[in-house]
Write a structure and sequence with these properties.
The protein is α+β, with helices and mostly antiparallel strands and 265 residues long. It is built from 4 helices and 9 strands, in the order H-H-E-E-E-E-H-E-E-H-E-E-E.
């Protein structure tokens, strides 16, 4: 075989490899985009506008209330009151669905699944049970919705979806700017305030601290995890306060996990 022929064969093979790689990368990007769009559709199903705020005094028939009513408190909804989403359709669509997680002013806005008998069912499945690289955030199988520590897992996706946004919390300024986590279940929407951010190993004892039966157990577990935290924001939660833990991969090469810890308000 002549040198020219060999070069032609090499060029052909190289082109074939490049085309194949291009097709694979393109397919992967399309798949990630579809997964993102699917979650956006679910978000639209549960989106509910906040109650409208009552008109300001200047737009009422009497700008100045009579003296007898001067001290009457304004009963209009607070502007910062968490929006109540209509989750009824999602409960109907999938019995594994237990709630909706949202961190305002971030991209974290997802359903949460729970399958105690199949702990990692949604690690690589979408909301409808089909294969998905992104999976769906899910509650630890050892938890129930009234556990002392609700641990929710989510992937740290390279395209910025799922729990990738939690990486912002390694910066204290970001943490202070996004202190509230909302988790709505069939019982209503609860708010949790972030109090610590920690980098741990995947086998850290905190993952076992689901039900803390006594004040001593609670305080001990909280003290230990705060001792491992990058920083603490505000005071430590008191015993009896439900904790919400968001967990995602961080420095996977060293089996690391990033935890964002929030206490119920």
């Amino acid at each position: 075989m002549s040198r020219r022929t060999k070069f032609g064969v090499f060029a052909f093979l190289l082109s074939a490899v490049l085309v194949t790689c291009g097709v694979m990368i393109g397919g992967e990007l399309l798949s990630r985009q579809k997964e993102k769009e699917d979650f956006e559709q679910l978000a639209k199903l549960v989106a509910v506008e906040k109650p409208s705020i009552s008109p300001s005094p200047s737009t009422r028939p009497f700008a100045t209330p009579p003296p007898d009513f001067a001290e009457t408190p304004d009963e209009s909804p607070a502007e910062d009151e968490p929006a109540q989403r209509d989750l009824s359709e999602l409960f109907t669509m999938n019995e594994d669905f237990v709630g909706w997680l949202c961190i305002p002013e971030t991209d974290i806005n997802y359903p949460v699944m729970h399958t105690p008998d199949e702990p990692e069912r949604y690690l690589r499945r979408d909301f409808h049970g089909e294969y998905s690289e992104s999976g769906v955030p899910f509650l630890d199988f050892r938890c129930s919705l009234d556990s002392d520590n609700l641990i929710i897992y989510g992937h740290n996706m390279m395209n910025g979806t799922m729990f990738a946004g939690l990486q912002g919390y390694v910066q204290e300024d970001f943490c202070k700017a996004h202190p509230i986590v909302e988790f709505q279940t069939a019982d209503g929407c609860a708010e949790y305030r972030v109090f610590a951010v920690a980098w741990v190993k995947s086998n850290d004892d905190w993952y076992k601290a689901v039900n803390l039966d006594s004040a001593e157990d609670f305080n001990s577990a909280v003290e230990k995890i705060i001792g491992k935290s990058l920083f603490q924001v505000g005071s430590s939660p008191e015993s009896g306060t439900q904790i919400l833990t968001l967990s995602t991969c961080y420095d996977s090469a060293h089996n690391g996990r990033l935890l964002v810890l929030a206490a119920k308000i």
